[in-house]
């Protein structure tokens, strides 16, 4: 917790659970990424936290932006950033949204299929496209599914199809899985990218760019490597697979940009047991999966917890949210250790909540308001 957040929480008016993000931490994270790979353009993944203050601060630092929708494109343009600093990185786009983005000046689009290429060719003539490939997410705490990307062997055909339809076949992208703690996870994907570059060159198509994606982690319960370690490992892989002909590169940090910049303050609503003989306490908070903690699904992301009674004797607890939905349980398979002295009404700090909390917060599910957000 930064001093700025501590002071904000000390003086704020009580209004339920909230997430508080310190912009100074976001700025420091951006500069760390920029220094780690100085020849790589940073495209902040807006979906991680689209707060206008965060987008404005990053725009002022010179960041570019990875957008998943026209709504996110509008948010970025509102900061004064030019459309040349936007990538429409979702591979699943309505044709009318592609057309609108193109009219707004966006020229960089992600694809992973022939059909998506054809949509872009119809309404965004001459645009640049990069093909996303499937990637092994081993080592990630939140591995991505097969929803996005094509098999690497198909990518050259997709890019050739784009070329033949008058689009600029620009490059290759991948994502090694969110919260990726293995700094070498990019190596295999870069080997695949280099093979696609060669296959396209044999067809007379010169690719220019590799999108390194996201996956850069934030610290939860365990330490994670710093940005410089990722930069060194990725650059070594680029040299290994591309030699002296290193392509233009971009990266899309989201969690790694804002995750450690924010925390959530929440209140204990109830502490109870399921039977007289049960030793396991159930601790219910005024926030749960539907209030912004969706990434506790399958207990994938385990957030650090701080209480006003830290230092007292602890025992394992099940941690759950307040809604009338049986799925609203954060940690049960692996209970959390909380003080035996914890009481109803105590405030708990959930750390490293700057990413994927406000954007996962439901709109009035069970009548609970969306998670309040403060950026300071």
TrEMBL record:
Ranges where the Orn/DAP/Arg decarboxylase 2 N-terminal domain occurs: 26-258
GO cellular component: cytoplasm
Keywords, sorted A to Z: Lyase, Pyridoxal phosphate
Residues modified to N6-(pyridoxal phosphate)lysine: 47
Active site (record annotation): 324
Pfam annotation, one family: Orn_Arg_deC_N
CDD domains, sorted: PLPDE_III_ODC (cd00622)
GO terms for biological process, alphabetical: putrescine biosynthetic process from arginine, via ornithine
Co-factor(s): pyridoxal 5'-phosphate
Family in the record: Belongs to the Orn/Lys/Arg decarboxylase class-II family.
Protein's recorded name: ornithine decarboxylase
Organism annotation: Xanthobacter flavus
């Amino acid at each position: 917790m930064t001093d700025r957040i501590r002071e904000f929480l000390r003086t704020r008016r009580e209004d339920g659970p909230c997430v508080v993000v310190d912009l100074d931490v976001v700025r420091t994270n951006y500069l760390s990424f920029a220094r780690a790979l100085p020849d790589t353009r940073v495209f902040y993944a807006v979906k991680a936290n689209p707060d206008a203050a965060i987008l404005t601060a990053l725009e002022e630092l010179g960041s570019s932006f990875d957008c998943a929708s026209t709504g996110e494109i509008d948010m970025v343009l509102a900061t004064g950033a030019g459309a040349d600093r936007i990538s429409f990185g979702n591979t699943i786009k309505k044709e009318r949204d592609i057309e609108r983005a193109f009219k707004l000046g966006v020229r960089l689009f992600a694809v992973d299929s022939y059909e998506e290429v054809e949509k872009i060719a119809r309404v965004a003539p001459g645009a640049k496209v990069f093909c996303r490939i499937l990637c092994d997410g081993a080592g990630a705490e939140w591995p991505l599914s097969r929803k996005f990307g094509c098999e690497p062997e198909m990518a050259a055909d997709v890019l050739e199809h784009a070329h033949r339809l008058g689009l600029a076949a620009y490059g290759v992208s991948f994502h090694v899985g969110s919260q990726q703690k293995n700094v070498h996870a990019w190596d295999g994907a870069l080997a695949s990218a280099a093979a696609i570059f060669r296959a396209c060159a044999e067809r007379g198509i010169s690719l220019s760019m590799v999108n390194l994606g996201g996956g850069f982690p934030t610290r939860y319960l365990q330490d994670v490597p710093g940005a410089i370690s990722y930069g060194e490992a990725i650059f070594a892989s680029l040299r290994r697979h591309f030699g002296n002909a290193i392509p233009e590169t971009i990266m899309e940090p989201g969690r790694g940009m804002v995750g450690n910049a924010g925390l959530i303050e929440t209140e204990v609503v109830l502490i109870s047991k399921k039977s007289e003989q049960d030793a396991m306490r159930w601790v219910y908070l005024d926030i749960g999966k539907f209030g912004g903690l969706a990434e506790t699904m399958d207990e994938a992301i385990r957030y650090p917890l701080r209480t006003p009674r830290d230092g007292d004797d602890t025992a394992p607890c099940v941690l759950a949210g307040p809604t009338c939905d049986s799925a609203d349980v954060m940690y049960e398979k692996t209970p959390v250790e909380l003080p035996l002295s914890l009481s109803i009404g105590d405030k708990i700090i959930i750390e490293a909540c700057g990413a994927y909390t406000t954007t996962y917060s439901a709109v009035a599910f069970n009548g609970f308001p969306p998670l309040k957000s403060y950026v300071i």
